[in-house]
């Protein structure tokens, strides 16, 4: 019998703690598949965030460090400078990366730090119970924007990929989504490219993944996937924002 | 080969670190310690090391976390306001048991304070500073030779116990020039860093995780008990203090760092006048040198703690003396360095000499 589907070797067999219908798990799997395909598990060092993915260090079969909230890019910088032959990645949520860790990610990108960041944008603080994130869409209700995000008082969402693409340090910046199979395939391609660019020493790489939080969005898993396409994608358009091999997106 | 070179404090500390095998430095500019990162940015590339000017002290300490977790000898330095920003990372490093050396060239506070020397960061250094039940080994040099010796030893202590070590200097030490000789510390047997995250290929495929998260209460308590047992070992093995003229001293002045230098001048004057005054100089502020107090207690009638602060170490002196003798205090703040005469006047007052 030919096996056509298997668990990636770079994922442990520990059951994840993610809620049903949450796409964090899919993103983990894509990273693990890429690590397998590139054969880099024995030199990969991952940095887990503070957020729902805080336990990511349990799920990947490679060395891991758990960073303080938002500091993963700084921690990854320290690791990469000590182990330049390693393949170093951070896995960060939107609160972690775009709010408390805004300085760390901007400067890691500006330095062209040879790391890969997988940025999981679900427009909410999942772990702490659904508070407003820097990526929460205008009008969206969260536990700290109970009347809907009012841009006059609470400002506007941050488009991280667009912002970082203005810097010279990054080699590859892309926004992808995992709300359907076609996009999952594209997301994996982007993550793989990011790791390949890091290995080739081209510069900083980041893949922003639009992700769901059915639990705190108060939607079913299916409705959540629909929300990604209907509400998030218009505000956070998918695509390559920087690819030094292909030129910048206009 | 013994060679004494005249160096500025901040630069001597940097050079000592490099000679101790430190190859990674992450920092952010702040007066009065700028010569330290500047020296590192110049020297580290010469020895195949790496200097990164971080975007903030928060980032710098987290780079140290990553580098220490990957097994490197690594240092960061700053001055008071920057050290405050590093407290988050220091707590995480204590939790994750990461060895590194952190230098605080203390200035006046609170807030932005001044760029003059101060000792107002004692509480922050020895009582925690960041959140959670943890301890740093805190070493306070009083001259540059001692600074380079302690920095050298600090890396060994950090590696031995897997714990951050803080070098507590001040603006005076950082900026002064003195001849120093770089020498090796007493060799210690150091454990292999087989826990470092250098990639599975570098440690036989067994997965390493650097982490301070322990979700279950029973496990976190066990982790804390382990930390406390480690601190208990450090308390026994790593106390350091200098005793000067304490054999017959009826009044023992307690002072650390730069202040102790001035106290020495005062004591020389007082001794010339025939007063039985001694100095107990804590070199390790944590662990606090309780053993040294036990030595002076039989003769000492009074203690006088002198600090460039409103009185912080004096609380630890009182804890050790435990009511058995009066503990007096004299301090200056705001970057004012007490003069030998001021200190002598205090001593004579306590001794009842008119
Ligand atoms: C310094 C600090 N502040 C706040 C928190 C609490 N906290 C934990 S996770 C989190 C937000 C996580 O949101 P995000 O990064 O978007 O990740 P998600 O859970 O949505 O995947 C916050 C605020 C913390 N752990 N540390
Ligand atoms: S709270 Fe949201 S982001 Fe976190 S695991 Fe559940 S669904 Fe996923
Ligand atoms: Mg989020």
Description:
The complex is a heterodimer of chains A (about 250) and B (about 350). With about 250 residues, chain A is an alpha/beta fold. Chain A has helices spanning about 25-40, 70-80, 95-100, 100-110, 150-155, 160-165, 180-200, 215, 220-235; strands at about 45-50, 65, 85-95, 115-120, 125, 130, 170-175, 205-210, 240-245. In chain A, about 55% of the residues are buried. The model of chain A has no long low-confidence stretch (mean pLDDT about 95). Helix content of chain B is about 40%, strand content about 20%. In chain B, α9 (about 255-270) links the parallel β11 and β12 (about 275-280). Chain B has 2 domains: about 5-235, 3-Layer(aba) Sandwich (Rossmann fold), CATH 3.40.50.970; about 240-350, Rossmann fold (3-Layer(aba) Sandwich). With about 350 residues, chain B is of the alpha/beta class. β2 of chain A pairs parallel with β9 (about 210) of chain B, so a sheet runs across the interface. Thiamine diphosphate (TPP) binds near residues 93, 95 and 128 of chain A.
What does the secondary structure layout of this molecule look like, with pairings?
The complex is a heterodimer of chains A (250) and B (354).
Chain A: H1 24-38, E1 44-48, E2 63-66, H2 72-82, E3 87-93, H3 94-100, H4 102-110, E4 116-121, E5 124-125, E6 131-132, H5 151-154, H6 160-165, E7 170-177, H7 181-199, E8 204-210, H8 214-217, H9 221-235, E9 239-243
Parallel strand pairs in A: 1-2, 1-3, 3-4, 4-8, 7-8
Antiparallel strand pairs in A: 5-6, 7-9
Chain B: E1 4-8, H1 9-19, E2 24-27, H2 35-43, E3 50-53, H3 57-69, E4 74-78, H4 80-96, E5 100-106, H5 122-126, E6 137-139, H6 144-161, E7 164-170, H7 171-175, E8 177-181, E9 209-210, H8 217-237, E10 241-244, E11 251-254, H9 257-272, E12 277-282, E13 284-286, H10 290-296, E14 302-307, H11 313-321, E15 327-331, H12 340-351
Parallel strand pairs in B: 2-3, 2-4, 4-5, 5-7, 6-7, 11-12, 11-14, 14-15
Antiparallel strand pairs in B: 1-8, 6-13, 10-12
Helix pairs in contact in B: 1-2, 1-6, 3-4, 9-12
Bound molecules: thiamine diphosphate (TPP), iron/sulfur cluster and magnesium ion.
């Amino acid at each position: 019998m030919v096996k056509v589907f298997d668990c990636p070797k770079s994922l442990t067999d520990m059951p994840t703690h993610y809620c049903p219908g949450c796409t964090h798990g899919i993103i983990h799997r894509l990273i693990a598949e890429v690590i397998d395909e590139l054969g880099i598990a024995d030199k990969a060092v991952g940095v887990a965030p503070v957020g729902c993915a805080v336990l990511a260090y349990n799920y990947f079969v490679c060395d891991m460090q758990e960073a303080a909230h938002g500091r993963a890019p700084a921690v990854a910088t320290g690791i990469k400078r000590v182990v330049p032959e390693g393949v170093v990645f951070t896995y960060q949520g939107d609160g972690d990366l775009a709010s408390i860790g805004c300085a760390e990610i901007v400067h890691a990108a500006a330095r062209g730090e040879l790391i890969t960041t997988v940025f999981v944008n679900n427009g909410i603080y999942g772990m702490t119970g659904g508070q407003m994130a820097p990526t929460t869409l205008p009008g969206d209700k969260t536990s700290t924007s109970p009347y809907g995000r009012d841009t006059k008082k609470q400002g506007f969402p941050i488009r991280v990929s667009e912002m970082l693409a203005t810097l010279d340090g990054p080699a590859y910046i892309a926004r992808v989504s995992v709300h359907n199979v076609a996009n999952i395939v594209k997301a994996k391609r982007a993550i793989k490219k990011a790791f390949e660019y890091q290995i080739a020493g081209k510069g900083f790489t980041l893949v922003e993944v639009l992700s769901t939080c059915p639990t705190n969005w108060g939607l079913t898993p299916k409705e959540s996937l629909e929300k990604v396409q209907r509400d998030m994608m218009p505000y956070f358009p998918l695509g390559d924002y920087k690819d030094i091999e292909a030129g910048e997106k206009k | 080969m013994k060679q004494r070179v005249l160096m500025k404090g901040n630069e001597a500390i940097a050079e000592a670190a490099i000679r101790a095998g430190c190859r990674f430095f992450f920092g952010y500019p702040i007066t009065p310690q700028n010569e330290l990162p500047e020296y590192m940015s110049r020297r580290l590339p010469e020895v195949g090391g790496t200097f990164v000017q971080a975007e903030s002290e928060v980032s710098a300490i987290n780079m140290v976390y990553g580098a220490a977790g990957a097994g490197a000898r690594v240092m960061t330095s700053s001055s008071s306001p920057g050290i405050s920003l590093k407290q988050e990372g220091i707590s995480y490093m204590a939790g994750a048991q990461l060895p590194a050396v952190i230098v605080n060239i203390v200035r006046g506070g609170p807030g932005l304070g001044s760029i003059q020397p101060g000792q107002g960061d004692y509480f922050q250094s020895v009582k925690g500073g960041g959140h959670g039940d943890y301890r740093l080994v805190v070493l306070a040099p009083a001259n540059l030779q001692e600074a380079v010796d302690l920095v050298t030893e600090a890396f060994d202590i950090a590696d031995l116990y897997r714990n951050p070590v803080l070098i507590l200097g001040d603006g005076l030490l950082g900026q002064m020039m003195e001849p120093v000789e770089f020498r090796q510390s007493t060799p210690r047997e150091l454990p292999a860093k087989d826990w470092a995250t250098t990639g599975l290929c570098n440690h036989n495929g067994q997965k390493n995780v650097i982490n301070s998260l322990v979700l279950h209460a029973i496990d976190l308590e066990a982790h804390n008990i382990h930390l406390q047992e480690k601190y208990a070992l450090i308390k026994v093995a790593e106390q350091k203090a200098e005793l000067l003229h304490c054999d017959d001293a009826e009044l023992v002045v307690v002072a650390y760092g730069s202040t102790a230098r001035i106290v020495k001048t005062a004591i020389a004057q007082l001794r010339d006048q025939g007063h039985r005054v001694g100095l107990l100089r804590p070199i390790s502020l944590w662990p606090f040198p309780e053993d040294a107090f036990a030595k002076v207690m039989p003769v000492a009638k009074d203690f006088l703690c002198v600090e460039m602060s409103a009185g912080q170490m004096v609380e630890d002196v009182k804890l050790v003396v435990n009511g058995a003798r009066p503990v007096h205090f004299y301090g200056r703040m705001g970057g004012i360095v007490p003069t030998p005469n001021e200190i002598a006047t205090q001593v004579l007052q306590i001794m009842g000499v008119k």
